[in-house]
Amino acid sequence: MKQVLGFYSLIGSLISFFSLFYLTFIEPLSGPDGIYISLFGLSLMISSILYLVITRFWTKSPAEIDKINIENEMLKKQIEQKELRKKLEE
């Protein structure tokens, strides 16, 4: 699900980039309308790029990440147990 949202966010940011490019260089809008539309497109583009970077939609799925975290916790506990056993033996 996260990958689908990331993909749509990427498409939205690309569309806003090309729209902003078109409205800025090819057919510029004058007055406050042009400024508001440019600011809206820029904010949409920045927020979607930040969403992609924060969620890292291109990485492993959350289920795999949860499994890795559980395995890491188990390994940490095993290491702690070995250290405690060594201390008790001494």
What is the strand and helix layout of this fold?
Layout: H1 2-26, H2 32-55, H3 62-89
Helix pairs in contact: 1-2
Can you characterise this structure?
By secondary structure, this protein is an all-alpha fold. It folds into 2 domains: 1-59; 60-90. 86% of the residues lie in helices and 0% in strands. The longest helix has 28 residues, at 62-89. The chain is rod-shaped. The model has no long low-confidence stretch (mean pLDDT 80).
Strand content: under 5%
Structural class: mainly alpha
Low-confidence stretches: none
Mean pLDDT across all amino acids: 80
Largest sheet: none
The overall number of domains is 2
What is the overall shape? rod-shaped
How far is the N terminus from the C terminus? 52 Å
**What level of helicity do the residues show?**
over 70%
Order of helices and strands: HHH
Number of strand segments: 0
How many helices does DSSP assign? 3
Q: Tell me the radius of gyration.
A: 24 Å
Observed structural traits:
90 residues, mainly alpha, 2 domains
Could you give a short description of this structure?
By secondary structure, the chain is mainly alpha-helical. It has 3 helices and no strands. It is rod-shaped and about 80 Å long.
